[in-house]
Amino acid sequence: MSSHSQQHNDDNSEWPTDSAPDEMFFSDAPPAEPIELTPDSPEEEARKRALVAGLKDFELDEDDRQLIDEEWDGTFEENPEVPLPVLAIVGRPNVGKSTLVNRVLRRREAVVEDKPGVTRDRVTYPAEWAGRDFNLVDTGGWETDLLGLAAKVAEQSEVAISLADAVIFVVDATTGATATDERVVELLRRSGKPVLLAANKVDGPSGEADAAALWSLGLGEPHPISALHGRGIGDLLDAAMDILPTESALGELRPTGPRRVALVGRPNVGKSSLLNKLAGENRVVVDEFAGTTRDPVDELIELKGKPYWFVDTAGIRRRVHQTSGADFYASLRTAAAIEKAEVGVVLLDASQELTEQDIRVIQQVVDAGRALVIVCNKWDLMDDDRRYYLEKELDKQLERITWATRINLSAKTGWHTDRLARAIENALASWDTRVPTGKLNAFLGELVAAHPHPVRGGKQPRILFATQASARPPRFVIFATGFIDPQYRRFIERRLRETFGFEGSPIQVSVRVREKRKK
Predict the structure, then answer these.
(1) DSSP secondary structure of 408-419
(2) Residue 509 β-bridge partners
(3) What is the DSSP string of 84-153?
(4) Helix orientation angle between 356-367 and 325-340, rounded to the nearest 10 degrees
(5) Residues contacting residue 140 through CB under 8 Å, at least 6 positions apart
(6) What is the four-CA torsion angle of 220, 225, 227, 232, rounded to 10 degrees?
(7) pLDDT truncated to tens, each residue of the chain (519 aa)?
(8) SS3 content of the chain, % helix, strand, coil (to 5)
(9) Spatial CB neighbours of 379, under 8 Å, sequence gap ≥ 6
(10) How far apart are alpha carbons 428 and 345 in whole angstroms?
(11) Is the peptide bond before 126 cis (omega within 30 degrees of 0)?
(12) At CA 436, angle to CA 434 and CA 439, rounded to 5?
């Protein structure tokens, strides 16, 4: 991009505006390869040493010295995954499965509401008891002779049983064994998995007789518990540890350190459909009813030979304080899923107009400092007129996020879903990028020489030194002799992107004003 700026020295100076279209703006072509940054050359190293020496004349605090002296080396700690045993909790709707999950986790993780059918997918949580780590799986309610959405929920429960190493079968002791409970028992027996029977809602000694009546199910001794009040949970988990293997007997070892990808967007834009298409199976419940997904759903998926943890999240409806019930907690879980992810894949419905919600979801990913890929889904429903107007809407509403990679696809048909892998890979590569300090200061020296900061109040701030403090996302700290105008900061950010890439990643530029030591 050519510059329209010339050197200015008066208070009415202007610099290159950042409102012009960026050449890196959205393209349906595959994203470019990330720039490979080589170590500093001898000249760049000498420049860096000279600038650091010059900083001794300025007042620096301990944090400044540490940032300058102990330069970040660009390495990250990896947390290898280990194959943990899987304990699934199953039962018919509204018997207290999610309440039991929260009790085991000792925090409100699973969405709970006093009506049946709140949980719809099988959701996995890391858990620990008596020094042992395991994966706890919450499932939707299992019922017989169902159609539509309820049948899909029951199917997920059956899959959870097949993928578990042990099962806790939860029954409502106050209502006793039902015909549905007996059908679940048949399913559990066919699976051959070790099973514990939990008689829930036994809040005191008076309920013990109700629990004892469940011997009739033929699953052995019922464990009387109250998931709501915590009664009997410790004894139940002790028994579960006795039947749970120390290592999962199912599946293969998980690859080390797969990257985490959050699928986010407003309800019914196709997040679950995309996850199912990428996984090659019906991993999560999909229905035309908006808001089917409530809890974040993790799935390990291999794309182009690389493993990724994909997290399907609940649709972000409105601001959190405007939601209630299960939707309120689902919104909180979605926000937490974005924080835990490394890249946010924001889905837009290409067949509809861009909404304020869409913009808010994108901004939520940017504010969290995560890499960003924007996906226009349902491209198969687009006509030529809509395609033209969509591009205009994106140009206007996302003018500050022109660095985001955008791809067009159809989760339903699978069209162009293969492009997602490369977009994610490039966004993560930018998110991880470290610019050597010498190169960064050489870049800034040339930039300031060609386009100096305007004079303000008779003074012109001078950039003394810059370093990259961290990555994920890339964060740059600039030491200067005076306040740097926000518009000039955005100019620096745009030129950083033009020079070093950062496609698909937010970058942060902060300024520390330091005065010269008084003699």
Answers:
(1) E-BTTTTBTTTH
(2) 476
(3) --EEEEE-STTSSHHHHHHHHHTS--S---SSTT---S-EEEEEEETTEEEEEEE-PPP-SS--HHHHHH
(4) 40
(5) 93, 117, 119, 120, 121, 122, 153, 154, 156, 157, 285
(6) -110
(7) 333 333 333 443 444 444 333 333 334 444 444 455 777 778 888 878 888 887 888 888 888 887 887 665 555 554 445 568 889 888 888 888 888 988 998 876 554 444 334 333 456 778 899 889 898 888 765 555 443 333 444 455 566 677 788 999 999 999 898 888 888 888 888 888 899 999 999 988 888 888 999 999 999 999 999 998 999 999 999 999 999 998 877 643 343 468 999 999 888 888 888 988 888 766 544 444 444 444 446 788 889 889 998 887 765 554 443 443 344 445 656 676 787 889 999 999 988 888 888 888 898 899 889 999 999 998 888 887 787 888 888 888 888 888 999 999 998 898 998 999 999 999 999 999 999 989 999 999 999 999 999 888 888 899 999 999 888 999 999 999 999 999 999 999 999 999 998 999 999 999 999 988 776
(8) 35, 20, 45
(9) 350, 408, 409, 410, 415, 416
(10) 12
(11) no
(12) 125
The answer to pTM > 0.70 is no
The closest alpha carbon to 307, from 261, 361, 373, 357, belongs to 261
Give me 93's structure tokens. 């709707």
What domains, with CATH codes, occur in the chain?
A: 1-20+30-74+434-519 (3.30.300.20), 86-243 (3.40.50.300), 259-427 (3.40.50.300)
Q: Which amino acid is at 21?
A: P
